[in-house]
Structure formats: structure tokens, C-alpha cells
Design brief:
With 218 residues, the protein is α+β, with helices and mostly antiparallel strands. The chain has 2 domains: 31 residues; 182 residues, no CATH class. The protein is built from 6 helices and 7 strands; from the N terminus they run ααβββααβββαβα. A 7-stranded antiparallel sheet has the order 1-2-3-7-6-5-4, with helices on both faces. It is globular.
């Protein structure tokens, strides 16, 4: 027979597990995110010079309760372009499926492994993010891309060493996590050395982080 203290411990463990499961799946209204912020971020168009935005399909893997919005930005003058993708959802799913895993799984070769970068943003809060370069070759085509990604819960962009564990600790207080990818193409003749972003690319990347961060304020 179980003694009373043992039953209390078992009940407490079951209750804690139920709370964590409810937070992770957003099954209960108490843990459901405010849809206004999520809707505002998914509707955002990055404003930058004469670049125009078109929504494009995304083939990124989505788990239950995760939503992705991708837009391609193109300058009609210079033909420069970028693709920005916002993913929102429960931390357990949004913290995983990072490009350093997904791109090689889609047939890309890693040119330069992920590393962290930090850029200053207006208002004093910097954005920290990961950057990695990938290449895919076929008989007729070569594609080289630079992918940047970071997470936020409140408008401050971070690139933690262990995102799954860091954001799991915030399940109850912050039930929704946001991740943004900023993808630009690299020149075919860039060689094997890691090329530095040109000033226009740097400015667009900073504008993306800044404008998504500002969207957290209604």
C-alpha cells in the first residue's frame, strides 16, 4: 500500500506533468498566446528602399500549432533579392528544425558552418543570430545561399547555444516562440572563403530584425 507522503508526491508529479503538457500543447486557454501579436508579425512587410514583397510558399517542416509566412523581397532596380520567413508556435517545435540540419537534409552542402553574429539595432537592443552558408549543385544549376536565423519571445533576437532547453524553461510564462530566417544568395564565383555581406545586404538584414522587433509594440 502507498503511504500518504508517497501519494502526495505522485499526485504532485502528475499535476506538474499535466501543467507542462498543457503549456506545451497550448491545450488550455491559460497558456494560449495573444493572437494579436502573432497576426501582426505574420502580416508584416519589411520596408527597405524600393524592394517589393511577394508572399511565397514555404516548404519548411511544420509541427502542430506552428505557422510559417514567407515573403520574397526583390528590388526592381538592382534585381537584388532576399527571402524572409517567420515561424511562430509552441517552443518545442519552433526551437528545432534549424537550417544547419534542414538544409543538408534537403541536398545542400554546408559551405560554412553556423556561427553567431550580432548587429546593433535602433533603440539600443542588438540582434544576435546564427549565420551559415550552403550550396546545392545539379547538372545545370548551382545555388549558393546565406541563411540567418534567430528566435524571440518579446522582440529581442537571440541565438542560444541550446534553444530547445532554453525556451522549454519559458513554456508557462511565454507560450509562443517566434523564429525568423533571412536568406540571401551568394555569388557563384565566391569561392570557398566566407565572403562578407555587402553594405546593402547588411542594411536589409538589420531592417528585417529591427522591424520585426518593433512589431511587438502595438
Amino acid at each position: 500500500m502507498f503511504q500518504t507522503p508517497t501519494l502526495v508526491v505522485i499526485a504532485a508529479l502528475i499535476g506538474a506533468g499535466a501543467v507542462l503538457n498543457g503549456a506545451a500543447t497550448q491545450r488550455w486557454a491559460a497558456f494560449a498566446p495573444d493572437p494579436a501579436t502573432t497576426d501582426r508579425l505574420h502580416a508584416l512587410h519589411v520596408r527597405f528602399l524600393d524592394w517589393e514583397a511577394d508572399e511565397v510558399p514555404t516548404d519548411m517542416p511544420m509541427n502542430e500549432k506552428s505557422v510559417a509566412t514567407s515573403r520574397r523581397y526583390l528590388s526592381p532596380t538592382t534585381k537584388r533579392s532576399a527571402v524572409v520567413t517567420l515561424i511562430s508556435g509552441v517552443p518545442g517545435s519552433v526551437s528545432t528544425h534549424t537550417p544547419d540540419v534542414c538544409y543538408p537534409g534537403s541536398g545542400y552542402r554546408t559551405l560554412h558552418a553556423a556561427r553567431k553574429e550580432t548587429v546593433p539595432l535602433p533603440g539600443g537592443k542588438p540582434a544576435s543570430f546564427y549565420v551559415a552558408d550552403f550550396e546545392k549543385k545539379s547538372a545545370t544549376q548551382q545555388t549558393r545561399v546565406r541563411v540567418r536565423w534567430a528566435w524571440t519571445t518579446d522582440g529581442t533576437w537571440v541565438a542560444p547555444d541550446s534553444p530547445r532547453w532554453q525556451f522549454a524553461r519559458q513554456l508557462v510564462s511565454v507560450p509562443v516562440l517566434y523564429k525568423v530566417y533571412v536568406v540571401t544568395t551568394l555569388p557563384d564565383d565566391a569561392g570557398e572563403e566566407r565572403a562578407e555581406d555587402d553594405p546593402v545586404t547588411k542594411a536589409f538584414v538589420a531592417a528585417a530584425w529591427s522591424q520585426y522587433a518593433a512589431a511587438f509594440a502595438p
